[in-house]
Each structure stands twice: as C-alpha cells, then as structure tokens.
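It would be a great kindness if you could assist me with a short task in structural biology. I am sending you one protein, given as its amino acid sequence and as whole-number tokens for its backbone shapes. I would ask you to consider whether the tokens describe a fold that such a sequence might reasonably adopt. The full record is reproduced below for your convenience.
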Amino acid sequence: MATVVGILDRDSWSARTDNIVVADPAAKTLTWVPRDLWCPALGDRINEAFCLAGFAGLFHALRVLGIQCDHGLVLRRSATEHAAAKISVEVPVTEPLDFLYPLAPLRPIEQGHKMISFRPPAERLENERLHQWVGARRGESPKSSDLDRITRQQVLLRALLEQPFDFKSVVAEPDLVRISAAAALAELASVESSWRMNAVADLRYQTIDGKSVLVKRDEALRPADKESPQLAVLVLALGAPSTAVETIRSLQAQDLAVEVVVVNSGGGGMAQKLARQGIDVTVLDREECLNPGAARNIGINATTAPLLAFLAADSVVNPGWARRLVFVHQAGVAATGSALENPHPHNPIAWAGHFASWHRWVTASLRGGVSYERRLFDTYGLYRDDLPFGEDREFLARLPPELRPDPSVKIRVIRLNPTRLSELISQQYLLGAQVNGIRNDPANSACSFSLWRAPLERAWRACRNVKNRAAIFLALPLIPIALAAYCLGGLAGHLAKSRDRRP
C-alpha cells in the first residue's frame, strides 16, 4: 500500500500538480516524482495526469512508470500557503546556492526576476524565503534543474519532521483538499524523519513536441500502437456539412491510430464530398433523416474498436486528443464526456453561436460528446432509435452511477463556431430546419421560454467567470438574433415536413 501526495501549482482544481511524492509505509520511503517526467501513455508530462482525470489518471500514470499507488491526497496551492505562513524552520546549506526567482512567488519569471542566495552553514526559512527555497528552479548554472529543487524540498521536509510541526493543519480546510480514501491520511500519519527520501532516478532531459521533459533512459517515448485501433470515433453528420472535412482531418492528424466512421443522414452526398478532398474513411450515407440514436447505433455496429467516441461534424479535436482519451479509459473510466471550447475567444459572434447552441446539449461536461467502453453497449443495450432527442440522457440513465461519466475528467473538443454575423444566422437557420426535419420538438418553438432564457443566463454567468468576459458581454445582444434564426429555420423545417406528409 502506498499513498501519493500532490500539490497543485495554482489555486484551482483544474491546475497541474507541481509536486508529486509517493509515501510507502512498508518500505519507509518517500519518493519524489519530477513534474516534468514524461508519461508515454499520456503523451505528456505526468503533471497533467490529475488535471486530466483526477485520481484515476494520476494512479494510472504512476503505474505506467512502474510506481504502484493505492491512495491519494491532493492539495490546492492555498492549502500549503496557509500552512507555510506558520512555518519557521532552519535547514542546513552545504554549499552556496544562487537562483533567478520571479519578482513575486506567483508571477511568471518571464515578467521579471531577481537574484536570491542561500549560504552555508544554515538558513532560516519563513515567509517568502520559504517559497524561494521550495520553488526556485533556475540557476545561473545550466546544470540547475527540477531535480535540484526536489533535493531542497527533501531537506525542508526532513527538518519539519524533526520539529513539532502540525501537519494536520495542511488538510484542515475540506474545500482545499481531495482525498481518495481515509486510508491515505492514516498512511501519511506514519511518516517519520528516519524514512529514506529519494527521487525517480536514471533520467535525462529531452525535447518532445516542443516541450523540455524528463524521460527514463532507454525507454520508448511513446508506447507502440497495436495493429488494431483501440478507439473508434463516430462522426455524426446531418445533411453532409462542409465542416466534416475539418473534423475528419483533425482525427487523421492524431498520433494514435483511430478507426473513423462517418454516419451522415439527410443526404447531401457526404462520401462524394470527402472523396473530392482526398479523404478516405468509411462513410455510411442515409438519404432519410435519422433520429440521433439510430445514427449512433449504425456507427456502433459498423466499428470494432473496444472504445467508442462520438463527435459532431462541426467540431475538431486538438493533437493528442485520442491518446488522452485512451489514457483516461485505460485508467479505469468506463465513460467520459468532453467539454466544448470556443476557438475564437475574442470574437463576440463566435460566442453568440457557442451559447445559442448550448441549450441543446445534455450537461456542461458532455456537450462535446461522450466516449464509452464498448462493453457498456453489450451489457446495457444500444441507444433508443425512436427518440427524436435526448438519446444520450436516456442511455446514461440506464448505467449504474459508478459507470456514468466522471465530471473530474477534462477532455476538450473545439466547436467550429461562426465568426461573421451572416455565417451565424445561416448556421442557426439551417440547424433549426434540419433538426425539425427530423422531429417536432416543442422546445424549438419561438414561444419556448427556456429556449431563450438558458443561453442568455449561461452567457451572463460567463461574463463574470471567463477571461474573455468583454467579448461575451458584446455577444449578449447577438444571442437572441441567433435564436430567432434557429426558430425561423425550425418553422421552415416543420412546414416542409407537414407538406411532405400531405397525400
């Protein structure tokens, strides 16, 4: 049994882990894991694992690197800052140490720095001097690295263990700490100054994907991909939209083999459109407009990979998306959602399109689509193909709570929002017409209060919480225009459907 302790680099649960230490009571060891250590299965530094998938992600990343952990405790930065405010401790200094340090502890060093020094035989650490001892990374010597910082952290921790310091104060505020199990606290309470302190060894610096990272010597930087893709992505399209080209190209650019199948209903010649662009993927074209569940089931039955992800044909994914998604599922997550990002954060029109479409998705963490282990469909059945909407919600309701999407997982999908007013109006009109070509949905009526209220409420809240609040504020008067276009399109689609039904 072992417990991993992580300290986040910012005061937010979406931050990366700045410090990772594994406590093993059986071996009586504390092992530091450098935050820049490359995790091949993740395709990124290990400090991204908790940020991406919580404790499941952190445990899995450590297992990939040969470190077994059973429990975990993660602290937000303010938890350690509150505790540090009470610390005054003397540490031994064996040789002169000089570092470049930010002008303030939380400021980037690129915005300015100062020289700090520690001199033998000892230094008293308190207040900012404590932050400097723990956090300084850049020295005048090119040999300075994160491994040097770990050595200083070990010296500090041993000094604290040798004096009466109340470690319980670090976890005193429940909102600032997350614990995977009560056993984590019991294991950490057994730590003593006599324990051996070390760090993951035999490492070297290397540049991967433009990042300076630490890798284990003689280790493959990426796991060898199996012949059969582990992930199938079902691109769901209606009326063969031109945006599907960008969607598929973003999938083909992944560094992991992906089985791509396009399910297009409502005609439009999707296969021909993709062929003209030189794109060779499986396309399942249907002239009739299908309910969403029926389209999903067609794609599920046409694929073989053990993992299934659904992606709208007006979305794209970043490099590394597929590898991260597979990593999350390998960590033991049976189903996970994706959150949508606006690729034009400074454009009010793009924000208007983003929020105008917001109400048609299930929850914030599922708006970019959900991915599942295939076994869930084998066990709980396929989607209902008779529902004009809400098929995802209905399927999720069949799953037991422990198999539903984990809200701590942070997979991102980018929605191709319009950037011009004419594009916004056209997009929403066509979307309304297409959707009502399939269903008669009262929620699409211009008289529906929720249709208008929900997007405006979410946009107003985002004005207070998002960095680009000025652009979102300017988008507020554009959202009703987008919704009006959607309703007009819905009315046109409904009338066309009624005409088709006449004898």
Summary: The first helix runs from residue 49 to 64. The chain has three domains: 3-80+166-216, 88-161, 231-501.
